[in-house]
Every structure is written in C-alpha cells, then in structure tokens.
Amino acid sequence: MAKLKYWLWLATRRGLGPAGVLMVLDHLTTPERAYYSEQEDFDPLPLPPAVKEALLDKGLEGVDRILDDCDRLSVDIMTFQDAGYPQRLKQLAVPPAVLYVKGRPFRFDEEVAIGVVGTRRPSQASQVRAGKIAMELTAAGALVVSGIAEGVDRCAVLGALRGGGPVVSVLAGGVDQRFPHENRFLYDDVAAAGALISEYPPGTPHKGSHFNPRNRILSGLCLGVLAVECEPQSGTMLTVNHALEQGREVYAIPIGLDEQSARGTNRLIHDGKAKLVEDGPDILKDFAELYPSKLAGVSALAPAVVEARLDKPREAPPAKRRPQQSAPKREQISRSQQKSRFTDDELEILTAIEQAALTADEIVEKTQIPAKRVLSALTMLQVQGGVEERPGRRFYALVELET
To answer: pLDDT digit string (tens) for 236-249?
Structure first.
C-alpha cells in the first residue's frame, strides 16, 4: 500500500501530467525517491516552477481521499510497475502512470481488442452498422473497446452487450462520473459485463482537455481501431491518428459521398490509411492466425439473431401530442414473440409496469429483481422501444404482452 501511495502522489501533482511523471521517473527511478526528494533534486528537470513547487508538496490528504473513494466504489488501481499493466500501453510514447478500473480485470495483451469509434451524431445507417459490427466482434471472441459518449460509442457498447460478451469503455473522467446523462444506465452495464477504465481518479469530471489523452489509451489497448463515421477534423480522427502512430491497424466503413459527416472515414480509405471493411469478419480475419485460442471455434451469430438483437433507430414521434388523458395504443407482443424479443427480466418488468408507470426503485420492490439488473434491463427496453422514461423518472410501457 505504501508504494501505491507514492504512485498516486506523483500522478496527481498539479501540472505534471503523464509525460512529466515519466521525466521524474527517468531522473529519480521510483515515485518513493521522488516523494523524499528536495528542491535541488528537481532542479535539473526542465519543468515549470509551478510544477516543481507541486513536487515539493508532500501532503497525502488527496491520496488518502482517492484510496477511500476507490474502496467505496470497488475501483481497482493499476500502476505502471504492476505485473498486470498492459504491455501495449507500456509501448506508448506517453503511457498512463496509473489506471483506475471498475469491473472485471482483463489481460489486454492476450485480447483481440478492437476499438470502435465515430461521431456523436451518426446517420441512422451508421448507428445500425456500429451496433452490428460490435455485436459480430464480441460474438466471435473479440473485445470491443469504445468510449461511452452519444452516437457511435453508445451503439457500439450496446451492440457488444447484445453480442453476449464483455465490453470496455475508456473514460475522460472518473469512473464514477456518468457522462453524458443519457447514458448513465450504461455505466452499470459495462462495469457488470466488462470494465470502465480511466487514468483520472474518481470524482474527476469529464473535460474537453481530457478526451485526446483518453483517446491514446483507447487505441493503445487495441490491436485495431474501426472508424464508423467521422469528419476530417474530429475526436474520432484524433483517435485514428493515435492508432496510426502506435502501429495499430485502422479500419473504416465506406459511406455515401453525400454524407457530410463521413468525409473523414472516406478520406482514410482513399488515402490508404484505413482498410475498407463492411462487417466484423472483415476485421477479425487479420487476427485469426495470431490469436487462434480467442477466435477459433466460436460460432458466429446467425443473421436472424443479429437482426433481432440489433438496435435500430426509431423514427421521431409525431409533433402533435395526444391529450394526456387518452392512453396511446400500445404495440401488442404475442406470446410466441416474447421470449425471442425480451429477456426474462425485461418481461417481468414489462408486466410490472403494464398498468401504471413506476420508478426504478418501485420496479425493484415490485419484482424483487436486483437494482443493477433492473437498470440494465430498463436501458435495453428503452433502446428497443419497449418503455420510455417520463417526468418523475417513471417508466411507462410502450408494449403490451399477450397473456
């Protein structure tokens, strides 16, 4: 624990950053030696005076607070010196000194990890493609890595979850900071099935200046990165550029020339920086021989199963609102369709809210399903068009189950 405190102390020195941490370690060898060093020990380093002053602050109150937060939130801490620290990240020009992980541990160096990235405002076609390819990758044994923002990130995470495997989201803030608000339920789903990873301690808000540093970790953990849809100047292109600098494979989906937001992905293909792909198998064939134990012998999902699980965007509802007192007609789900469309938890929740909208807490009380599973099921039901969240955080059934 003592050594961990020194790592956290060094990594949290104001203004130092990951590159500065490496500089200090190159000069003083260990965080412990840095902690006990005096001003003259830091003088040879080309660091701003304010940063050197921060290195002279030996207070550990902030470190203790981080450790307490991680214990309370069940967050694991991994440092650069730990045996489980990914070699893929150690190879980066500026690897993170510390990683905070909520969820299950992964041996990333043994994973066929594929990053899936793209615009926050994708076309409907790209939303479907992102979910479909992520589902195919996961079902085949690969590990999908993405952010957890709106648009392509969200579709990729949901697709991976529907593929039946884990998914990893790399964050630009603390693992306890749920951003954006619309994706708050996804955090529990990802942590339960895979992992949330950040180089920022719990409590750190998501900031614009954090996203590009986050992107180098996202691409660094992966063997390849798929750009689904993006413009030439975008966060997605920053991730792609990191991947190219790191020697990772880059893939892109071709999109119609009339799609303004696809100019970046089309240009990557045109310039030979990205391989043109249309589905998950197009990507996995590059790694099948290198990782046979991960990819060989895994049965691909049947097309009908992929179609049934796919997150297809719904058309916007009519602008005209019905009078509040008249209940809208709900889609009827026959008994023969229920098991193929919804999980057991989802069916039980739909039954519970059939007569009246309930809050998540009320659903837990009524169904006795654990809260984490209820939140996960509600997320899936919303994206499938089975329920909607209404004022007061009450969930209303949009479908009716045949009994």
So the answer is: 999 999 999 999 99
